[in-house]
Design a protein that fits this description.
The protein is built from three helices and two strands, in the order ααββα. It is mainly α. The chain has a two-stranded antiparallel ribbon.
Length: 91
């Protein structure tokens, strides 16, 4: 999917998100105040949204580009796949 530098950057993001979710789990286990839990949820959601943005950008730049067999024509199957993913994400 990505060059090693990009892959490493994305994996670091995933690990930060994992840490945020683990912190959320610990907060529930320790019966933390709802305000703290809400802040942790918002942070994790922000991390996921940022990751989604990066991967969508990569997909657009690398998979929706011109069809090599038909210059100037976007790949319709890649367009539909992205549309389906976005619809699922925003539900």
């Amino acid at each position: 999917m990505h060059a090693n530098k990009e892959k490493d950057k994305l994996l670091a993001r995933v690990r930060r998100i994992k840490g945020q979710v683990e912190a959320l789990e610990r907060a529930f286990e320790s019966e933390a105040e709802s305000e703290k839990i809400l802040h942790l949820i918002v942070a994790a959601r922000g991390g996921i949204s940022g990751l989604m943005g990066e991967v969508v950008e990569h997909h657009i730049r690398n998979h929706l580009a011109d069809d090599p067999d038909q210059p100037g024509v976007l790949r319709p199957e890649a367009q539909q796949a992205l549309i389906d993913i976005i619809h699922s994400y925003v539900k």
